[in-house]
Amino acid sequence: MTVSCLSHPPMPLQVASSHVGMLVFGIFNSSVYNSELEEAGFSFDEASKNWVKTTTKSQRSAAVVKIGSYLRFRIRRLHHVQGLISIEGDNPQIGLNNAEINAMQDGEEGCVVPKSRKKKLRLM
Q: What are the pLDDT tens digits along the chain (124 aa)?
């Protein structure tokens, strides 16, 4: 399930070579691990300490995961430990789509979950 949160889109608070850490809704810790970032075509740039996705033609940066950028991801697993819920994500994508940008500009809030992909989530 891919979740797009309009009022509080996930923004990286911690970018490391092992993972990207975010706070969803200002409450839930979430992480996208390096294996998922690499699978999506990102590589960790030691000089800038950011995850970078380059285009093959020009080798220019097409997307950069850094503190403060919007990062969309699919919920892969929920963890529940000692009363705390954390989210593990995959399929990372940079930025918001046009519908999300328009909704934010119109002052809408909430999360968009595509109806065709709704699933029951289990806490691990």
A: 555 554 456 778 889 999 999 888 778 889 999 999 999 999 999 999 999 987 666 655 568 888 888 888 888 999 999 988 899 999 888 876 666 556 555 554 444 444 444 445 555 4
The whole-angstrom separation of Cα 32 and Cα 91 is: 9
Residue 122 corresponds to which tokens in the numbers above? Answer: 């289990």
- CATH number of the domain bearing residue 70: 2.40.50.140
CA dihedral of 64, 68, 70, 71, whole degrees rounded to 10: 70
Token pair recorded at residue 4: 């797009």
| Sheet of strand 43-45: strand arrangement | 43-45, 50-54, 61-65
Cβ contacts of 30 within 8 Å, gap of 6 or more: 10, 21, 22, 23, 24, 73, 86, 87, 88, 89
Give the total number of structural domains in the chain: 1
